[in-house]
Amino acid sequence: MNETNDTTKPSILSIEGLSIAYDKDKFAVKDVTATIKKNAITAIMGPSGCGKTTLLRAINRMHELYPNISTQGKIKLNDENIYEMSTIKLRRRVGMVFQRPNPFPTLSIYENVIAGYKLNGIHLKRSERDEIVETSLRNVTLWDEVKASLHKKGTFLSGGQQQRLCIARALAFKPDVILLDEPTSALDPVATAKVEDLLVELKKQYTIVLVTHNMSQAARISDNSMFMYLGELIEYENTKTIFTNPKDPRTEGYLTGKFG
Amino acid sequence: MDQTNILIEKKAAEILPDYFTGRKFKDRSFLIAIIFFSLITISFVFLIIGSLVLRGYHQINWAFFTETAPDTFTAMMAKTSGQIIPGGIANGITGSLYLVALASLIAIPFGVLIGVYLYENSEKRYASVIRDITDVLQGVPSIVVGLIVYLWVVVHITHGYSTLAGSVALALMMLPLIIRSTEESLKMIPDTLKEAAIALGTPYYKVILRVLIPTSFTGLITGILLAISRILGETAPLMLTTLGNPAINWNVTKPVSAVPLLIWQFYNDPNMVDLIWSSTLFLMGFVLILNLLSKWIAAKRNS
Amino acid sequence: MNIQKENAMQQIRTLFDELSELVLQQLDLLEKIINGTVTNIPKELLDQLNANEERIDKYEIQITDEIIDTIVLQKPVASDLRQVMAAYQMVSNLERIGDSVMNIVRYIPRIQETEVYLKMSEVITNMLIASVSMVRKSILSFVSSDKEEAIWTIKNDVVVDEMNHKLIRKAISKSKYPDEIQQLLCTFIQLNSIISTIERIADHATNIAEASIYAIEGRDLRHQKDIDEQ
C-alpha cells in the first residue's frame, strides 16, 4: 500500500502518517503514508472530494492557507521534514502549477518567468536572468514561439501557451519537485497533448506529482498512480498494474466507472 | 417552407390584431420614452456647462491663473468702467492644490492600508466593525467634519485657522472612499494570482506589495482620483478650518485659500459676482480632466 | 505528439519482429532436419530447438502483456488499434507454429520404417517449404503493410490443403501393398485425424479456461506447467 512495485528509482519525498483536518474533526486527508519516486511522474486520482488536492497542497504547505487547518504527521523532502523548514525555502524546491493558467497580468513574459526571483527581491545579473529565462522557456518548448515578444504581456498567449509559461515560471528555480493540480483541465485537447508530452520530457530532470480527475491522463503519462477515496490512500501502485489488475475493490470500482 | 410561414403569420395577424400590433406598439413607445428622458438629462448637463461657459469665458485669461483675487475696490472700479475685473484666483488654485496634496498624503496611506487589512481579514468581527465605522464616516455631513476638525486642530494644535486643519478635514472625507475602493479592487483580483505568488515562495507582505497592489493599481488610482474630485468642491469644512487667504500661502500653520472658498467670497461681494462663473468653470474643468485622466490610466493599464 | 504512445507501439513492433525471426529460425531448422537422411536428430540441433521454443513462449507472454498495457494506458484508435489487435492474434498463431515445429520434431525419431520416411521426405519437404513460404510472406505483409503478400498467402492455402489430402493417399496407393492393407492404412489415417482433432478440441478448452482465470484474477497461466502450485 505504501510502496509501488517500481524499485528501480530512489525516493525523494516521503509522506508519513499525514492527516489533515478542517475544523478539528472533518478530515480531508486520513493517515496517508507513501514514498514518491525521483524522476517519475506520480498521479493522484480519485473522485471529487477525496482529498487529492489537499494532499498535493500539503507537499508545499499551501494547504495552510485554508482557515482552521490542522496537520499531523510529516512529509520529508530528501530526509528533511518540510514542516520544520521555512515555507519560503520549501517553495523554492517544490514548485506548483495550477488548474487555471495564472501568469501575472501586469508583468511581461520575460518578467513572468523570472517572477520567482523578482518577487523575492533576489537580484541577478542581466546575463544570469537572460539565461534562466531562455533555459526555462526552452524546457517548455515555448522559446521559439515567444522569443520575439518577450517583453509583451503574457495575457495575449493562448491558454495552452499560458500554462506552459506557468510551468516555465515554476522551473526557473530549478526545483526538485513540481506539483501540478489538474494542469490541463482548462485546456483544449491539442494543448493538453503538448503539456503531457512536456511532462514526460521533464521527468528526466524533475520529479512530478500530478493530481488529475482524468484517469486516462494518469494512464497515459504516469509511472505510478495513487488512488484516494474519502481522504484515505486506497492503493498506490505502478500505473500498469493498477490499471490492469488493481487489488482493492474500491479502486476497481472507480476505474470501471461504478462511482466517482 | 417560407410560404407556409408567411401564410401562418398572415392568419395570425388577422386573428389577433390587437395582440400583434399592441406588442410592437409597446416596444416602440418604451424605446421612445427612454430616448426622450435621456435626452432631457443630457441636455441639463449641456445647459449647465453652456451657461457657465457663456458667463465665465471672458474672465479667463492669463491673469486668471497667476494673480490673486482682487479686493472690492478694484473690482468696483472695473465694473463701473465696464472692464473685466483684474486679478485672478491664483491664491485659490494654489491653495486648493496644496490642500488636496496634503490631504492625499494623509488619506492615501491610511486608506490603502486599512483597505488591505479589510481585504485580508474580511471574515473577522473586527473587520466588519471597521467597515461599519467607515460607512458612518462617509455619511457624516461635511460641515460636521469641519466642526470636529475645528475643535481638534484649529483650537488645540495650530491655535488658529490653518492649512493643516483644512487638509485633515478633507482627508477625513477622502478616507472612506479610498478604503472602500481599495478593498473592492483587491477583491476583484482572482485568488489564483495570490496563490501563484505564494507558491513561488514569496513572503506575504511582498505578495501584497508586489502582486496585489500593482494588479489592482487601476482600481486604486480610480478610487483616489474620485476621492480627490469629490473634495475639490467641498466648501463647508474649509470655512470652519482654513477660512481663506487673500495671498498665496505655503505655511501649513496659516490659513490658505481654496477655489470653492473664493466662489463663496465672490458670491457675497456684489462687485465680484462676475468672477464666480469663471471660477466655477475652472473647477468643473479640473474635475472633468481628473475623470478623463482616471479613464485614460485604466485604458493604458489594460492594453 | 504523444511520445508514450509512439514508444509503446514501437516496442510492440520490435518484440513482434524478434518473435517472428525466432519462429522463422525454427522453421529453417526444421527444414534442415526433414531434408536430412536420418531420423535421428543431432543433439545440438535439438538443444537449439528447445531453447528457441522456450524463448518463443516467453515472447508470447511478453508481447501480449505489452499489447494489453498499451491498450489500457494509451487507448489506441483506428489503425493503431487494428495493428495492435492484429498483432495480438498473430502472436498467438506464431506461438502455435512454434509448438507445431516441436511436435513434428518429437514425432520424427519415433518413425520406425525409416525407408518409407526417406522416400517421402522430399514430398514432405516440398510441402514444408510451401508452408514456410506462406508464413514468411504473411509476416512480411504485416511488417511492411504490403497486402499483396497477404493475398498470395491466402490463395496459396488451397495448394497446401491439396497437398495435405493427396500426399499420404498417393503414397499408399503407389506402394506395393495389397488392396486390403491399403484400405486398412487409409482407415487408420482417417481415425488418426479424427483423434487428433478431438485432442485439439480439448486443447482449445484448456486455453479457454486459462483465459477465464485471467479475466477473473488477472493471473496469466499460459505456459505454466503446474497449476496445483497456485
Give the number of helices of chain C: 6
Largest interface: A-B, 28 and 21 residues
Radius of gyration of chain B: 27 Å
Radius of gyration of chain C: 21 Å
Average pLDDT rating of chain B? 84
Number of helices of chain B: 14
In total, the number of strands of chain B is: 0
- The CATH architecture name of the largest domain in chain B reads Orthogonal Bundle
What percent of the residues of chain C sit in helical stretches (DSSP H or I)?
over 70%
Helix/strand class of chain C? mainly alpha
* Name of the CATH superfamily of the largest domain in chain B: MetI-like
Stated plainly, the CATH topology of the largest domain in chain B is called MetI-like fold
Please describe the biggest sheet of chain C, giving its number of strands, its sense, and whether it closes into a barrel: none
The portion of residues forming beta strands of chain C comes to under 5%
CATH topology category name of one domain in chain C:
Methane Monooxygenase Hydroxylase, Chain G, domain 1
Largest sheet of chain B: none
How far apart, in Å, are the first and last alpha carbons of chain B? 49 Å
The unreliable regions of chain B are none
CATH class of the largest domain in chain B: Mainly Alpha
How would you summarize what this structure contains?
The complex is a heterotrimer of chains A (260), B (303) and C (230). Chain A is of the alpha/beta class.
Entry keywords:
heterotrimer; B: 303 residues; 2 domains; 14 helices; C: 230 residues; mainly alpha; Methane Monooxygenase Hydroxylase, Chain G, domain 1; 6 helices; 83% helix; elongated
